[in-house]
Amino acid sequence: MASPVDVDARIAANHRLSDAYNILEIEAPAIARQTRPGQFVMVKRALGREPLLRRPFSVFEILRNARGAVTGLSLLSKQVGAVTRDIFLAEPGERIRCLGPLGTPFSVVGPPAHAWMVAGGVGLAPFATLAEALHASGVDTTLFYGGRSSEDLYRVPLFERLGVRVVLTTEDGTRGEAGRVTAPLQRELATAGDRPVMVYACGPTPMMRAVAGLAAGADRPVQVSLEPVMGCGLGGCYSCVVRILDGGARFVRACLEGPVFEGNRVSWADLT
Amino acid sequence: MASPVDVDARIAANHRLSDAYNILEIEAPAIARQTRPGQFVMVKRALGREPLLRRPFSVFEILRNARGAVTGLSLLSKQVGAVTRDIFLAEPGERIRCLGPLGTPFSVVGPPAHAWMVAGGVGLAPFATLAEALHASGVDTTLFYGGRSSEDLYRVPLFERLGVRVVLTTEDGTRGEAGRVTAPLQRELATAGDRPVMVYACGPTPMMRAVAGLAAGADRPVQVSLEPVMGCGLGGCYSCVVRILDGGARFVRACLEGPVFEGNRVSWADLT
Amino acid sequence: MGRPDLSVDIAGLRLANPLIAASGCFGYGVEYADLVDLAALGAVAVKGLFLEAREGHAPPRIVETPSGMLNAIGLQGIGVRTFVAEKLPELKARRAVVIVNICGSTVEEYAEVARILSDADGVAAIEINISCPNIDEGGHTFGCSLTGVHDVVRAVRAATTLPIFPKLTPNVTDVAAIAVAAEEAGADAVSLVNTFLAMAIDVETRRPRLSNVVGGLSGPAIRPIAVRMVYECRAAVRIPIIGMGGIASARDVLEFLIAGADAVQVGTANFEDPGIWPKLLAGVTDYLERHGHAAVGEVVGTVDLSARETAWISS
Amino acid sequence: MGRPDLSVDIAGLRLANPLIAASGCFGYGVEYADLVDLAALGAVAVKGLFLEAREGHAPPRIVETPSGMLNAIGLQGIGVRTFVAEKLPELKARRAVVIVNICGSTVEEYAEVARILSDADGVAAIEINISCPNIDEGGHTFGCSLTGVHDVVRAVRAATTLPIFPKLTPNVTDVAAIAVAAEEAGADAVSLVNTFLAMAIDVETRRPRLSNVVGGLSGPAIRPIAVRMVYECRAAVRIPIIGMGGIASARDVLEFLIAGADAVQVGTANFEDPGIWPKLLAGVTDYLERHGHAAVGEVVGTVDLSARETAWISS
Lengths: 272, 272, 315, 315
Ligand SMILES: Cc1cc2nc3c(=O)[nH]c(=O)nc-3n(C[C@H](O)[C@H](O)[C@H](O)COP(=O)(O)OP(=O)(O)OC[C@H]3O[C@@H](n4cnc5c(N)ncnc54)[C@H](O)[C@@H]3O)c2cc1C
Ligand SMILES: Cc1cc2nc3c(=O)[nH]c(=O)nc-3n(C[C@H](O)[C@H](O)[C@H](O)COP(=O)(O)OP(=O)(O)OC[C@H]3O[C@@H](n4cnc5c(N)ncnc54)[C@H](O)[C@@H]3O)c2cc1C
Ligand SMILES: Cc1cc2nc3c(=O)[nH]c(=O)nc-3n(C[C@H](O)[C@H](O)[C@H](O)COP(=O)(O)O)c2cc1C
Ligand SMILES: Cc1cc2nc3c(=O)[nH]c(=O)nc-3n(C[C@H](O)[C@H](O)[C@H](O)COP(=O)(O)O)c2cc1C
Ligand code: FES
Ligand code: FES
What we know:
- The complex is a heterotetramer, with 2 copies of chain A and 2 copies of chain C.
- Helix content of chain A is 18%, strand content 33%.
- By secondary structure, chain A is of the alpha/beta class.
- One flavin-adenine dinucleotide binds next to strand 4, strand 6 and helix 2 of chain A.
């Protein structure tokens, strides 16, 4: 894999989608060109500024100009604290510090396998690049996409343009099927027959745990993109560990061996 | 004296005068209305933001609208560190935290006394309000205003409009008389005859020390506006002390008993 | 349910709420009388007082550091008798609950200062500063040894019936052992922490940035260490704890209470925002209401060490 | 005058410059090989190693605090033999100067780990971690007592001829006395400081924010305390000092050197900016040139305590 680069990138645009969500477009072609689906970047507003540590974000889209040349990448961010607030408030023309691409990407299936992506809220982030890659290899792809309410669901047309079948759920029933995203997934798993299916999941830990359980029950492989706290993103600090079951339980660094893991390798009981 | 107020004031304008100097206009009428010449405010960009402590700034101008109503105040700031940088970069519409007015003001002479204001660089700051007050009472006023170069001298017409005679000096001779501001002061002190003169001084400590010495030598009273480091501006921390000679040497708080002191009270040998 | 009860009882001293202005960060209290309603504070801990007036250190006395500041004021002060004569009456008139922070160069001086305060009218409690890191006679030497702490507290205990709160230094290997020594010697509560001995150098001139060379670090930078020390002391002593170190928000107040403090002091944050007091009070009240507590005491010492369990949260 | 000489001599070990990657903040060094030129660093101090592999603590293992962070990694590690077999060859190939940080649950374990490293090819020095605050067996108990320090250093001294650098904990009353004990027991230099024992609580859940309850505070927040400790140790021992704690800029490097450190380590700042190394080097070089120094050693221990005098500066 190519080596990560650290850039002081110009912000090209900031699309505020709601009071919480935004998509930040940043001019970091050197990172974007190397990024594979599921990889992430470590971000902060500026060096020397509080908070001290960078934060990890999945690369959402690879941005291209009219001629198709890569110009940068975007982040889909949800405000939960200091850095996501900085990202929400950032203005075009300002700069942002961005290091990447980092981590082990999704393993992208090819036909005849079908791809089922299961996203909870901001867990949609790694799936735009994955959908592109799947589309390029002609994989039949479905996105199960759930949130608390319609306020948590964004950019559905982006996926539809890539030929993705989209199944929406909201817990409050304001959009798509009422309930959790695991409900339609469970139904379809039960009726999928002998088609080969690779399940991909990203979202809150309890959701991923549930998806991994459903996939295992239906004997389907599943890749999850986990979101542990990360201090460095480079393997330096050992903060991001996930307990893995193979070869006797042991902690591995999610910034190097992950963030994508096969669902059956993860010790779900240890994930908080 | 009325009590200080702490406001989250809107920035009305920012006049960048050079790479170092700027004049920030802020909408803080509740402070401006109470301010007397020589008083200061404690400022920081926003609560909860690094650096932790506020910084003291003299009130430069009292701002008024077309009908003469007080709308706010301005600060004349020179970039030397973090907060003066924040002040330099601030944009209209943003906010700034401002507590004041604070401190003991100049004692403003009346006719027949003449007023001689001696300013070094950004030490001009407390003299705009003083010149207004002197103008209002019909005092014959002179401003001796020195800097390293013409890049340190600003807003001379403001003083001229108030009938102030302005004597400029620069160390590099790029504007006014070449040399230090103490040279014309010394000359004029020698030839002032028996006119009563009150000297006011603000600038770097060595300059104020020199001015106090010259005034004492010519038997003229002098008021200096000192600039010790201040942690609170309210008498709470005892960081801002100046050694005073009366009643046996002792440290007094410049934020309460100052920043204006009679020159002969100050223990100049202890000022660094 | 009505509004939660914010009052706390510190060794028989009832405070309207757990917020105390920290010693040395609020002058003699009277300086803030126009800006802060002194009667609305739990208490005011005034600047450290020796028997006689003291000049303190030459400036510069403070310097800012990342999320903190160093001070080496050197306990400039007017002496206890002048305080009683000139400041105490106004504090009383403002209905402030007054905690007097006392210092001494000798055990006898501590006792003498305490005696004078016992005879005065309007002192609620005595905080014994055995922890000022800035001056040789600031009690730091007493505060760093078990016998030193014991001797000073014993002597003050014998000199007064007022509640006494030794204020502990964090510059020790085992702060809980020091707290135990204070308790055994008759302390009614302990205050912690005082500042951390620290230093900053101007690299261009190579001079220390404080005239005193070293000074005490306070502010948010030290908060995680202070919280740990309160937590350790909570497990070691039965007397109340007054916690402090870097509190700058209601969240921080609650962190100390949960760690085991019965009340807190706020110092450095008051410099940044003298209007912080009603905000802290409102934030604590809001928290108590949200969590269904009838009284602030219910959160004291409630660190939850049970195993973690996570609920399903959709994003 | 040519470019200043940046090299430093730490007890016979010559480093190209005084910048060392701090243990536990740079993995085993190999993780950074693509991003940082390991040969351009003064040295790399690798993650603390016990004799056997260790799992470390459950997450969450870090939490950010004002200008700092807490960590309770719990010394997860691959064990010294696996390190020698799997990591050391690559570090050697990259021409890194390798300092191995060692741990032990017993004095014997420290000695055994040191012996294994002595027999390995490519170890420049051993840093003895007697200061990890996060685990019971992390040496913190050794590091807090004079006899503990003495015993561990003695045993390692007997086990190896490599340079040995005990790494001191700041969680003590008198760090200079600890440094003296280390020197007397045969240390070639001392490293300080390790992290400060600290704690953070999530007030909404009342759970500690680290699974281990307490952790170690690092980052700019602690710098003033660390600088003071280096300054104190400089006056107490003759052996070189490797200083650290919150360094995030060339100015900070110089502050430690001026306080008395012969070399420095950088930990937390490397997380924020893995590209910091050439910037630090450039800043130090620029400073030496501006101040007319031929070699970096000329600034070590040069705190100026003479009386202040100010020049006339117009504005
Ligand atoms: C590989 C990876 C990819 C990610 N991709 C995205 C993305 O594309 N878009 C997005 O919005 N977020 C993403 N996240 C999560 C994102 O990193 C966090 O939301 C961010 O770190 C929060 O930073 P903050 O400063 O805003 O909040 P903070 O102030 O740091 O924290 C606010 C609150 O959130 C909690 N918190 C913070 N980080 C985490 C975490 N990782 N796990 C659980 N709780 C946490 C804190 O404990 C605190 O209570 C990703 C995380 C990882 C590891
Ligand atoms: C009563 C009073 C009125 C003032 N009025 C003005 C004014 O109108 N306009 C103006 O530009 N400045 C004024 N000053 C000075 C101003 O407060 C400082 O320039 C400011 O605090 C610097 O803050 P900073 O964060 O930018 O610099 P910092 O990052 O705090 O410091 C940068 C450098 O300047 C030095 N420094 C900072 N403050 C002082 C000080 N007070 N004395 C000596 N050295 C210092 C520091 O040691 C450091 O080396 C006044 C000061 C006082 C006490
Ligand atoms: C400028 C200053 C002066 C102080 N003076 C005293 C004092 O006189 N007596 C005392 O016991 N503590 C003194 N302290 C310590 C504070 O009371 C408090 O223990 C410490 O600052 C930590 O709290 P904080 O982080 O909220 O400021 C002083 C602190 C500062 C910043
Ligand atoms: C995540 C992390 C892990 C650490 N692990 C070790 C370790 O294994 N051995 C050790 O001696 N110090 C360890 N330390 C302490 C650092 O080496 C250093 O002493 C401390 O962080 C202060 O420096 P800093 O402020 O530059 O980070 C660790 C620090 C951090 C932040
Ligand atoms: S985030 Fe630092 S090792 Fe993974
Ligand atoms: S600035 Fe705090 S007492 Fe004057």
